[in-house]
Amino acid sequence: MTLQPFPDDWSRALVVVAHPDDMEYGGSGAVARWRDAGKEVAYLLVTRGEAGIDSLPPTEAGPLREGEQRAACAAVGVTEVDFLDHSDGVIEYGLPLRRDIAAVIRRRRPDLVVTGNFADRWPSGALNMADHVHTGRAVLDACRDAGNRWVFPGAGGEPWTGVRYLAVTGSPLPTHAVDIGPTFDRAVASLSAHRAYLAALGGDMADPETFLRSQATVVAEQLPGASLAVGFELFAL
User: Fold this and answer.
1) 29 with 81: CB under 8 angstroms?
2) Cα separations (Å) of 197 from 52, 128, 154, 202?
């Protein structure tokens, strides 16, 4: 399968993911390329990842992981980072989540919205988790909700119908890719910023350089001319 180059006909992106580290496990190298090209990129985290470190209570882990996410964003040139404060580990798909995301889409007015894999499985075949599935489905629906003035009236201001693309990172069915050879080191630095989380995680996924390089090498085999790449399933809205 050959992946298509990611389109360039957009100017503002909003990244919406469930947890700190979700975008850094493969997608932040693309964000760095976009920022280098002058694109505006903002992040929205549904949770603060407070249930993600077994050795720390949520009251300690949440602020710690928020700080790590802000550092991870800074490594790829992103300074606008918001958190919704839904509960980590038990994100519920439903109207409150759709409303909260739609409000930020109306405020940020993106052309491109990026989220994480919300299919049942990862490309490896491993099962996905409910937080990712529920967040991604809510993001898809919120892109439509944001443009309808009669849905969630008053949430986030005036309707925004300008979302042209929804891009899904980590999808088992990628269609497009971004060459991240020039920004790979910054992708590694971005994931490495999650120091406490990686230390608690252990295993192969706790080695940012090795993990990201292995993933990016596989994707690059499907993008002509690239040595390292990030794949996305891209939907035109």
Assistant:
1) no
2) 7, 19, 37, 9
- Over the range 57-94, which residues count as b (16 or more CB within 10 Å of their CB) and which as e? ebeebbebbbebbbbbbebbbbeebebbebebeebebe
* Residue 178, φ and ψ in degrees, nearest 5: -120, 130
Mode of pairing for the β-strands spanning 40-45 and 112-116: unpaired
CA–CA gap between residue 231 and residue 222 (Å, rounded): 9
DSSP-based three-state secondary structure for 30: helix
Count of alpha carbons within 13 angstroms of residue 136, beta-carbon side: 23
d(CA 40, CA 62): 26
Q: Would the pTM of this model clear 0.85, i.e. be above it?
A: yes
**Cα–Cα distance measured from residue 110 to residue 13, given in angstroms and rounded to the nearest whole number:** 5
Q: How far apart are CA 198 and CA 207, in angstroms?
A: 8
Complete domains list, the chain, with CATH = 4-236 (3.40.50.10320)
Walk along the chain (237 residues) and give the pLDDT tens digit of each residue.
899 999 999 999 999 999 999 999 989 999 999 999 999 999 999 999 999 999 999 999 999 999 999 999 999 999 999 999 999 999 999 999 999 999 999 999 999 999 999 999 999 999 999 999 999 999 999 999 999 999 999 898 999 999 999 999 999 999 999 999 999 999 999 999 999 999 999 888 999 999 999 999 999 999 999 999 999 999 999
